[in-house]
Amino acid sequence: MIKNIEIGDLVKWFEYYADGDIVRDGGTGIVLEHISTRFKVFCTKKRLAQWFSIREIELIKKGTYK
Question: What's the whole-model pTM score?
Answer without folding.
Answer: 0.85
